[in-house]
Amino acid sequence: MVKFIVVRILQAIPTLFVIATLTFFMTRLAPGGPFDSEKNIPAEIKEKLESHFGLEKPLYEQYFLYLSNLLQGDLGPSFKYMGWEVSELIAKAFPVSAQLGLFSLLIALVLGLPAGVLAALRKNSAYDYCLMTTAMLGICLPTFVMGPLLILLFSSWLGWLPPLGWYSFADMILPSLTLGLFYGAYIARLTRAGMLETLNQDYIRTARAKGASPLRVVLRHAIKGGLLPVVTFLGPAFAGLISGSFIIESIFFIPGLGRFFVTAAFNRDYTMVLGTVLFYACLIIILNLVVDLIQASLDPKSREP
Amino acid sequence: MLLLAKCMSLRTFHVINHSFPWTFPKRVIGHYFWLVPVLFLLGGCSAPSNVENAIEDKILHFGLGSEPQYLDPHLASSVSAHNVIIALIEGLVSEDPKTLKPLPGVAESWDISEDGLLYTFNLRKNAKWSNGDPVTAHDFVYSYRRILNPNLASQYASMLHGLKNARKYHEEGLKWEEAKVGAVAINNHTLQLTLENPTPYFLELLNHYSWFPAHPPTIKKFDAFEKQGTPWTRPGNYVGNGPFILSEHKVNSVIEVKKNPNYWDAETVSLEAIRFYPIESADTEERAFRSGFLHLTQTVSPDRIDFLKQNHPEVIHFEPYLGTYFYRFNLEEPPFDDVRIRLAFNLATDRQAIVEKVTKGGQVPARCFTPPGTGGFSPESRFRFDPQKAKALIQDYLDEKGLKSLPKIELKYNTSEGHKKVAEALQGMWKNHLGAEIQLLNMEWKVFLSTIEKRDFSLARAGWIGDYVDANTFLHMWRTGDGHNNTGWSNARYDELLELAAKESDSEKRFSYFEECEKLLSEHAPILPIYFYVHVTLRSPTVKGWHPTLLDHHPYKYVRLQNEDANTW
Asked: What share of chain A is helix, strand, coil (3-state, %, to 5)?
C-alpha cells in the first residue's frame, strides 16, 4: 500500500511539471496583458510597469525564473490584487470554497443516497419514476438557473434566507443547496443503478435466505457494492466541489477560489492563473489517490494483484 | 426539490417491486427528511438587513462593482479605486457635494496669481494623518515627486504634467532638483505650485487621486517610493488623511473603512463606517439591493431598467455622467480611409432611435463629441441624421471607385449584451440606409484592448469618461499620436488649436478653440459619437446628502443615513 502511494506521488511530479509549462505558455500566448486598460499608457511607462514584475524579460527567462521560484514554494505576487501574494490569496479563498463544497456534498449525499436506494428498492414504481424524474430535472437545470430560482423562492418570496454573502451560517444554505441539488441528482441516479445491480447478486439472495432483516441486508450487504459507482463519481466531483464554482460564487457573491480563478484569466493575472491551476492539479491528484484507496477498501476485487 | 422531499416524506410504502419485496424502514427516511426544514429554520432566523441596521449603526453599504487593483493613490487607475481612496485620503481641496466646485480641503485657503500660473496654498494646521502626524506641504511635494518618478511607472502621472517642468522630470530622466519642478514647500504649511499654462480647471483637477498625498514615513517604511506591489495599502499599514481609515480588506469580499477621529473635519462626518462590496454581476447587485444588503448599487442590468422604472421609480436613479459612447474608424484601411464613407456612416446613424429604443436608460444622443455643458462648454450639434445625404455620399464613392457595393465591414466590440444591442441596431440602420454589410465580432475585453492598440479593426466600439470637468479631457485624445487616438487621424490645425487653448486663460477664447476642434472632428469624422452616458443606479431612499454629479463623485463626509421607507420590496 505504501509503495502504491509513493509511486503515485512520484508520478504526479512530471504531471505537475507539464501542467505548469503548458499553463505558463498558454497564458502568455493569449492576447493582452495584465496592465492593459482602456486608458492607454505610453510604451515606456508600460515597459517600466512590466519590469516591476519581470515581464520585460525574454519568455524563456521568465519561465525558468517562475519554475525556480515555484520549487521554493513561491507562487509570486498577484498582478490584479496589488500587494497580495498568490499563495496568501489561495490560502484565504480555498477554505471558503472547501466549506461550500463540503456542505454541498453533504446535502448531495443526504438527498441523493436515500433517493437512489429508495428508487432501486421500488424499481419501476411511482416512487422510482417520481424520484428519477426529479433527479433528471436536477441534472438538466444548470446551477445558474437553479440558484436564482432558489433565491426567488426562499429569499425574495419567503424571506427566510439571505440571497448572497458569506458571513453567517444562514448565508451558506442557498449556495450549498444549489450545488448540492445538482450533485445530489447525479448521486441518486448512480446509487439507483449501483444498488439495482447489487440487489440481483447471489450474495444478497444468500443474505435474505439466511433471514437477515431488510435493513441489515441493505445497510450491511447491498450498500457497499451499490455505492461503488458513486465513489468513482465522487472523486472528481469532490475535487470540483471544494475547488469552487465560479457560477455559484458569482451568483451568491462568495469570495471563493472559483471566482479568483476565472477572473484571473480575464485579468491576465498570470501568476494567479498559474497558482490556481497548479493548486487544482495537486488537489485532483490527491483526491484521485484517495478515491482509489477508498475503492480498494470497498471492493475486494480491485485489491487482487 | 420539493417534489423529492414530498416523496421522501410519504409514510406508507406499498409493495410494488417484485424483485425486492420488502418495505424500507420509515425512520431512516424520516431521519434524513427532517434535516431539510431544520436547515431552512436555521436560515429563517437570519438577522435584520444591513439597510435596516444602518440607521442605528451608521454604516453605508456600497456596491463597488469590481475589486480595485490598487489602493495606492499614485498607482490607482479605476473608478472602484477612486470610490475607496476618496474615503481614505483628502487632497489640497475638497469638493462641493452638489456642484463639485472646489472647497477647502487640507488647504484652508489659496491665492492665485494674476496670470493664473502660480497657486499658493495655505495648509491648515489641524490637518493630520490617521496616525496623528501633521500633514505638511513637504508631504505633498514628496507625493508629486513619487508619482512623477518614472521608475514608479504610474499610469496617471501625466495628470501632473500641468505642473511646470513636471514632464521634464517624468519623461526626460532629469533629477528632481535639476528639473526644477514647480512644486515647492515654502514652509510646513505653505505650498507653492507653478503651472506650465494657466489652467482654469486646475483646482478641480486637484480632486483627482493622482494629486493626493501619501504619508512619506509609511512609503519609506515599505520601500514603496518607486516600487509597486508593496503591502503598505493593507489595513493596519495604510496611513491616510481622509475622513475614514482602512479597517478591513478581504479581497473579493469586502473593504471596510471606519471614521477617522484624527480627521480635521470629523464633526461633519456622519457615517461611522462604509463597507464596499466588489459585486461584479449586476443581477447579483440588484438582488443584494432588494434584500437590503446594499444601500446603493454601482450599476443596473439594462434588461431590468424598464421594470424598475415602472415598479420602483423611488430607487432607480438616472444621473448624467461625463462620458461619450462612440465608435472609432480606422483611417488607414479602406473604405474608412475615405472621408465620404465616414461621414455617410455618421449621417446614417439615428442616435435618437438608439437611446429611445435600444439603451432606454435616459442616455442623450451624442451629436458632438464633448458632452454639452462640460465645464461651461456646449459645442454645436453637428453629427446629424440625414440618410439621403449619406446615400448620395456612398454613391459618389462607389462611382468613383467603380464598385457596385461597399465591401463587407467588420465591427468589433467587447463582449457585453449592451454593446451587442447597439451594434445590432446600427448594423440594421446601415444596411437599410447605405446597403452596407456589417459583420459583428465580439471579443473578450483584453483581446479587444490589444486589437485596438494594434489598430487591427475597421470599425470598433469605444467609450471615454472624463477625468475632470473640462472639454480638454475629451478633445485632447484626438491630437496627433495621442495614445488614445488609435484612428490614424492627424490634423495640424486641431493640434494647434489645443495648444492655443492650453495657453489661453480667457474662457470665451478657449471655448472658441474647442468649438473649432469639434467642427474639425465633425468634418473629418474619425469617430462616430453615439450617445452621452448616464449613470443608472439603485439607491435606498435612506441615503441622504448624495447628489447627482457629472463625475459620479460623492464626498462621503456629507452623506448620512436617515429613516425613511427603506428599500423593502
From this structure: 75, 0, 25
